[in-house]
Structure formats: C-alpha cells, structure tokens
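If you are new to this repository, start here. Below is one unmodified record pulled from the training split, so you can see the exact layout before writing a loader.
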Amino acid sequence: MWRSSLEVFDLASGSVQVVFRTERLIEAPNWHPEGWFLVNGEGRLWRVDPRAPALRPIATGELQRCNNDHGFLPDGRIVFSCHDDRGAGIHVLDRDGPRELRLPRPSWWHGAHGRRICYAAARGDRVVRIAIMGLDRQVERILTPGRAHHDGPDFSACGRFIWFNSDATGHAQIWRMGAEGDDPAPVFRDDSVNWFPHPSPCGRHVLYLAYPPGTQGHPRDMDVALWLMDTQGENRRPVVHLFGGQGTINVPCWAPDGGAFAFMRYR
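And here is the target side for that same chain:
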C-alpha cells in the first residue's frame, strides 16, 4: 500500500507517468537538470533517481527538520528551509556541508534566478510577505507590504517577474509583479483557492494548484487540481485531478526544457 506517488505529467502527450511510490510521506519534487528528483520527508531531504527509484538520503548534517521549501540554485547547489526553535531558516548545501544564509527567521525558500532568491518571510507582525535577497550581499528586501497573506513566490524564466499567491482580494489567487515589487496584480480571479504558481523554464506556461472554494490555507489530503495557463493568464485549463494539496507542488517542479512537470499524488 503506497502513501505517496511521485509522478510526471508530459505536456506533449497529456499523459501521466508514475516514477516512484512509497509507504512514507514525501513531498514537493524538484527536477534536477541531470534528471533526478529532490523531495523531502520525515525531516530529511531525499534523492530519487528514476532509473533506479528509491529514497536516497542527502546529507544535511545536524539539520533534521527540513520542510517542503527546497530546490536548486542556478549553479546546481541545493537550497532548502529547515526548522529549529527559532523558526525556519534558509540553507545552501555547499561542498563542506550546509551553510545558513544571513536572514531573519522564519523564512521559507521558493525560487531562484541568477544570484537572487525569492522567499516567503514572516517578520515581527507574523504576516507572511514576499521577499528577495541577493546571494552576494545577502540584504533582504520585502516586496509586499500590507496585511494580506502573500506566499509561494517563483521567478519567471526571464527573471523580470515574480509569480505568487495572495489573498489580498479575499481568498488566495494567482498574482504577478515585477521582480523589484512593482505593479503587483492578480492575473485572473475565480472561486477556487489558488496556490503555488510555477512558470515554466521555456517561458510559455504557468502551473498552479487549485483548491475547492472556501479552503483555508493550503492543507494536505484534499481533492485538488493542477491547472496550466499561459503567462498572460489565458487558456487556463485543468490537466490533473488528484488527491493532494500540501506537498503536491510547493516548489519549482518543471523539467529543465519545460516539456513536463513533476508532482506528488497521495492516497
């Protein structure tokens, strides 16, 4: 009996392929340029190679409370969020082991472009906002002031825009703004509760997770759908209906060529 199913949707054929199933709870697949997948589960990070599917642990030292906010920097290094008593911090896995970035906590990594990362940040008032930071100077910039909940940021392929979800209009919808925080606006509006937009590396598509109307937050174990649209918010259509939610596509999950994406289905 499996609990978690790592699967791939191919855009050209519209077909779904099962890569790996396990009785354990694993989450949030990232697709490495060399073809393997990064997931988390039980506080650890794991590598899944589709040629010999299995959970192979990634060494993170004493950091054993890793969550589903992880991925790759453009140079291929793993970047991830991990909890302790101070909240979530963002770490980069260097050759000598994990190194924490100089950021306030809690911070949850979500995307990278060039030498910049974008992430969700809860500061003194605990409101979650979108922030960016350059890896060289490590100076934080909060891009979304106000009282609304902003989450799930990801850079466009060109790096000029940040996609995110926001409940500023009443419930979570898909938004886009300039990479410096300029002109934030919803891309469309509907009754679904929409989270985690991920633009494709080819610059043609945006994938997001749609919850039923009235859903609070982004819970796990619900009937949800994965939707695709173009970068103008047009041609929206559901492509996968599944039992999932939290852990399905929290972080960037596209194949490097933009022809497929990975996701988690749950039982």
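Two things worth knowing about this chain: The chain is about 0% helix and 50% strand. The two ends are 9 Å apart (CA to CA).
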